Amino acid sequence: MDNQRLFLFVALSFVLLLLWQAWVEDYGPAPQATPPAVTTDSASPAATGADLPAAPAEPQPQAAAVPEEITLPAAQQVVVETDVLRVLIDTSGGDLRQVDLLAYPVSTEPGAEPFRLLNDSLPNLFVLQSGLRTPDGEEPTHYAVYRADQNHYRLAEGADSVQVPLYWRSAEGVEVTKLYTFRRGSYEVDLEHRVTNGSGSDWRGRQYRQLQRTQVAETGQSSFIYTYMGGVLYSPEEKYEKIKFDHMLDEDLDRTVTDGWAAMLQHYFLGAIIPETGEANRYYTKTLSGARYVIGLISPQRLVPAGATTSFSSRLFIGPKLQDVMEKIAPGLQLTVDYGILTVLSRPLHTGLEWIHKVVGNWGWAIIILTILIKLVFYKLSETSYRSMANMRKMAPRMKSLKERYGDDRQKLNQAMMEMYKKEKINPLGGCLPILVQIPVFIALYWVLLESVEMRQAPFMLWLNDLSSPDPFYVLPLLMGATMLIQQKLNPAPMDPIQAKVMMALPVVFTVFFAFFPSGLVLYWVTNNTLSIAQQWVITKRVEAGGK
Q1: Which residues, other chains included, contact 374 with Cβ-Cβ below 8 Å and sequence gap of 6+?
Q2: pLDDT for residue 215
Q3: Are the beta carbons of 312 and 203 closer than 8 angstroms?
Q4: Which of 338, 369, 399 is the last residue of a domain?
Q5: Residue of 263, 243, 361 lying closest to 319 (CA atoms)
Q6: Nearest to residue 82, comparing CAs of 149, 146, 147, 164?
């Protein structure tokens, strides 16, 4: 297998990978149905309860009647503003209905609205619900109506946090305070259910927390780029597990996990639920009407004697996939930035990219500098590969002569070629290993640039004001195709005419594909190809001049 065939194999494999990812995105498992319109109804009966986890100390309930439409009960709306979040809480259930990420606008246009991660309207329905389940009377579930002290909370200047209490009381005298705590500069939210038992008898109950959403494709994302959207479960035993929407559709999850967490992911952002350390929670999934999917967890049962008070606590993370931040919040939460099997390479590359950005202050230049550093690390390997290619190129006229002499006699042709390689001390496979060693590193960097939220709307220069979006004028894709063509001219020409035609078509094919790629990825390929051309040209000229 010569270098041209190796390059052809790698290039075609990459194209097939892109086609497969696009096919999965476009023709993969579809939602159950097109979601109907969301309505709000303050008198919506909780009896439907299809999205409630099973109550404690009771057998699993029979499937409840499926509602004909998605109904989110509405009562008093409470707005919470911090320096990084704007949150809408509805006292009907005390749900987090909307969360706007103030530092992440929806576009690069001046005055663009902040990106809405949690949303109570279709098509991208995504809400966080919580409550208590008990067999001992009324339940403060996400159907119960709470009372709020005020309609608006704002993080005060100089304050580190703001608390939002919601109150509920049963006819029996059980009082529940649902308390949200938001902190300055943080996407982590504390959730507490404080139960005071004034009923005169023991109260038993569990806390549940769940994320409910529809399956909606990322807006503005190229169909050639596939990133995971769906549920995730982390446990110390199984580590990071994807709970895909079609898996939820096929079978409900029911598993007890200690020191784990659950989340719903989409490109760049996530909502996650993190229980108390050491607490064994039952993790579950449900599929509801209107193509809605639920992943959640319910805590162990607690007994609250008459006159006593207890608290159920959890942490929530609702925001961008900032690896360094998530790593400090919960074990494995940083894995939601999904690099796949190349995580061991991608994480150091991401760290290096961040370090360079701190120095130069521009993600585009950080990509270029990191690419240069990678090329320097592999300089000797690349030199070996290019020297082998140059020697093969130098021998091309003699190889063509051998082919003409032996015609279709493949055995004699191969024998003559081996003798020529031996005489000239040329290893035809000398360029293969250096290329193969570098491929995992380059693929790992590809995933770093694709998955990193830092690339989202990151400007470079001139017309490139968003490295996560395609080049609007196709300049970088055309440059990438030109560099591929130049590289081919520096490589030994294939002896097989069909193979030669395929190789000539590859720059055109890749130019078309890369026209839909994020410009940050194309910038990396252009830089890498340009450096490779410079190194290969110098080595080729040296070999052709009789040097080593």
Answers
A1: 441, 442, 445, 528
A2: 86
A3: no
A4: 338
A5: 263
A6: 164
Percent of the residues in the chain that have a pLDDT greater than 70, as a whole number: 76
Q: Which residues are within 8 A (CB) of 493 and not within 5 positions of it... i.e. 6 or more apart?
A: 393, 396, 500
Residues 189 and 147 in one domain: yes
Identify the bridge partners of residue 189 per DSSP, sorted by sequence position: 182, 316
- Quote the CA–CA distance of 16 and 383 in Å, as a whole number: 29
Residues 291 and 418 in one domain: no
**Longest alpha-carbon distance in the chain:** 104
Residues linked to residue 288 through DSSP beta bridges, in sequence order: 292
Single pTM value for the model: 0.81
Q: 326-352: per-residue pLDDT in tens?
A: 999 999 999 999 887 888 889 999 999
Q: Which domain holds residue 440?
A: 3-21+346-544
Indicate whether 333 and 351 sit together in one domain: no
Tokens 């099973």 found at: 54
242 touches 264 (CB < 8 A): no
- Identify whether 148 is part of a domain: yes
- Mean pLDDT value across residues 134-159: 93
- Are 474 and 515 within one domain? yes
* Range with the poorest average pLDDT among 36-45, 425-434, 524-533: 36-45
Give, as one character, the DSSP assignment of residue 522: H
- How many domains in the chain? 2
Same-domain check for residues 291 and 397: no
With respect to residue 319, please indicate whether it lies within any of the assigned structural domains. yes
Mean pLDDT of 163-175: 95
Coil, strand, or helix at residue 288?
Answer: strand
Average pLDDT of the segment spanning 175-190: 97
**DSSP type of residue 7:** H
Residue range 527-544: mean pLDDT, rounded: 81
Q: Which of these ranges, 131-140, 330-339, 359-368, 512-521, has the smallest mean pLDDT? A: 512-521
> Is 253 found in the same domain as 289?
yes
Residues 378 and 515 in one domain: yes
The residue among 311, 338, 365 that closes a domain is: 338
394, 544 in Cβ contact below 8 A? yes
Report yes or no: 449 and 518 within 8 Å, Cβ to Cβ: yes
Cα dihedral 2, 6, 8, 10 in deg (nearest 10)? 180
